[in-house]
Amino acid sequence: MEQNATEILLSLGLGDRMAGTSYQTDPVLPSLKTAYDGVPVLAKLYPSREKVLEARPDFVYSTFTSAYAGDAAGPRADLAKLRVPAYLSRFACEKDPAAFGFDGLFAEIEEVATLFGVPERGQRLVAEQRAKLDAALKGEHGDTSLLWYYSGTSTPYVAGPGGVPAAVTEKLGARNVYADAKQTWPAGAWEQIAARNPDVIVLADLTRGGDGDSARSKIDFLRKNPVTSKLDAVRAGRFITVPGSSMDPSVRSVSAAEQVGAGLAELGR
């Protein structure tokens, strides 16, 4: 039902078992593009329940609750009545979502692989992901403070606790300047961000929102805005860019740790 679920399935070599995909937010990973091109795209964003059922799936998979909204695939209970089980990531569970953790992500990958009858592929993928994560965590980054800037200009949406950015920050030994927020993705305020003055700003490069949501446009805004132009990170050009989809639970989450860790090392932080 969206890119993160799609890339997990493709990474498990299940492209030939996919009745459809939707909601691509970034260019698909190069290693998965050939397999992705063979999967029918049901909608640019979320397909309707009618569109989903037209594809005659035996199983629906999403990492976001919004995929099962009334104007999308519809409630999971309704799909179950039609004998179409609908899986939702533990990090987006309707009643009690779990805080993101890499162990939880790896457990989900193995669980999905088992559901499709290929548990050995899940174990192999998880082993590869663990090795990459371990390699990404070898640096020492002290108490470097990070602002994870996802989207928005008048109201910036940033990363708080419980999500991929929080887990990556903790693993790297750094500090998230919005760790005290009540939400995983709170609405921030530029004056508040200026007061917290992060050492480094991690930018989501979002292709879905057009150029206005690209990392380049975010940097331009931060340099022109009277409040943010005075931030130490902005004045020194301490930016790290990651694909927007890597800030959500997926096979890209480890890549986020790799990219931020490498970026901090390059910045001498």
TrEMBL record:
<dbReference type="Pfam" id="PF01497">
    <property type="entry name" value="Peripla_BP_2"/>
</dbReference>
<protein>
    <submittedName>
        <fullName>ABC transporter substrate-binding protein</fullName>
    </submittedName>
</protein>
<dbReference type="InterPro" id="IPR002491">
    <property type="entry name" value="ABC_transptr_periplasmic_BD"/>
</dbReference>
<dbReference type="InterPro" id="IPR050902">
    <property type="entry name" value="ABC_Transporter_SBP"/>
</dbReference>
<comment type="similarity">
    <text>Belongs to the bacterial solute-binding protein 8 family.</text>
</comment>
<feature type="domain" description="Fe/B12 periplasmic-binding">
    <location>
        <begin position="1"/>
        <end position="269"/>
    </location>
</feature>
